[in-house]
Write a structure and sequence with these properties.
The chain has helices at residues 5-26, 38-41, 44-50, 53-66, 69-74, 76-88, 108-123, 128-133, 135-164, 180-200, 203-208, 210-219, 238-242, 292-306, 309-313, 335-341, 347-351, 388-392, 403-406, 422-425, 432-435, 466-470; strands at 224-228, 248-249, 254-255, 275-279, 357-359, 372-374, 409-416, 442-446, 452-456, 479-489. The chain has 510 residues and is mainly alpha-helical. It folds into 2 domains: 5-309, no CATH class; 314-489, 2-Layer Sandwich (Alpha-Beta Plaits). The radius of gyration is 28 Å and the shape is elongated.
Amino acid sequence: MKFNILKTVRLVLALLIFIPLLLFFCDFTNILPRSLHGLAHIQVVPAILSGSAGILTGLFLLTFLFGRVYCSVICPLGILQDIITWFTGRGKKKNRKRHRFSYAKPQTVLRYSLLTVCILFLIFGITVPVLYLDPYSNFGRIAVNLFRPIVMEGNNLINWIALKFNNYDFYHVTVYTVTGLSLSIAVIALLVTGITALFRGRLFCNTICPVGSLLGIISRFSVFRVVLDQSKCTGCGLCESACKSQCINSKEKTTDHSRCVACFNCLDRCKANGIKYQFAYKQTDEIPCHSRRSFLLTGAGAVATLSFIPAWARKGETADPAKLTPVTPPGSKSLAHFKKHCTACHLCITHCPQQILKPAGFNFGWDYAFKPHLTFYESAFCNYECTVCSEICPNGAIERLTAEEKSVTQIGIARFDMERCVVYTDHTSCGACSEHCPTRAVKMDPYEGALTLPHVYDELCIGCGGCESICPVRPVKAINVQAVDVHQTAKKEKEEQIEEVDQDSLDFGF
């Protein structure tokens, strides 16, 4: 078998991106450098939602030059499918037929219908279709809700074994951020992509994935591509059996470049040197289609439309909040803004130092399902100056804040229910909420005798949840944070001014 240099380079680059990104999603100790979040920013959908024109231009140019290398080198879900295919031996050079792939006709109508639906929904600020179909977001949910808990339980097993030998280098960790629904959706995503990868290679990428369909429009006209030399091709089908995209038709001696993900698995299979990855700028008749011009115009229109999506989605961000409104992370600006940009990749959930970000169910509506929201019930709150989530969000759903901006960003307002407070029900002193308020928005007012009750000053409250997290009342807290539909800037309490006194003017009488 010939040495496949292109395949080797592709594998090395893919692992250099996939392994750090996987570890970053699974890092429950926060020891990895935060700069690794840059690997999430170079994904297509996050770049679209954040309005990163430079990254989008680079990815589109990369595809135009070399084909869909993004799908084989940069996309983590694509690489995960390749790993599944590799472990199962699918596509390897074996005699048994079940280990080989074969050419399949493209599902053109389904591919571009799903892409059109995603683009139209994004234009109107609805991320639901993208949330379910975006490969990066699906990988994030799989990593955070499935792989990360497995790693954490592995750590707990090592800790248990180490304790048997009086070794205290490890510590027990608890999974707080995974819900039954988020785990279920992660398992479903893994099963769908895993089963399709096992039996049909890159079927998900070439039929369901909107990113694959978008890049497929561009890759049809890529400068470098896999080309069959019809004068040398013997039609043996070896290259076809290795093609996980099922885009090589050895009988017709053609290649569907829109589905080719540039994995280069086919190059070292041909014994007649009839297939090459080479400069092929000139259009050929290899891909049967009704109208090349219509595909080109459609592709140009789609790419042009994408550049307007972030600006369009930012219009009309005022929303009528429901009775139960999720508290969105600081930097998300408003509930409407967060809905329009978040695709529930869960990167912020895994890196929240306080572990107060959790995936929502359907309790906040179908358009907020699986997106993160702040919870303060388990004795934790949003750190006064923490800006981690705003630093790592790749979608622009959480815009970057400085520590100073974070300390005055009002994401909610604490509401006090006197009839639940232990001071009112048990006639005993408490005041824990006031003591734990970092902005001094909760102060104690006289109640009965020496007893005092908390009073919330709305203009000072930032909704950090310090008061709610410490409240001893169960199961419903006496003080809790209610979200604001649009984030505001809270006031800071004026510090008491201490007048300087001239020591020489003091007369103590001696």
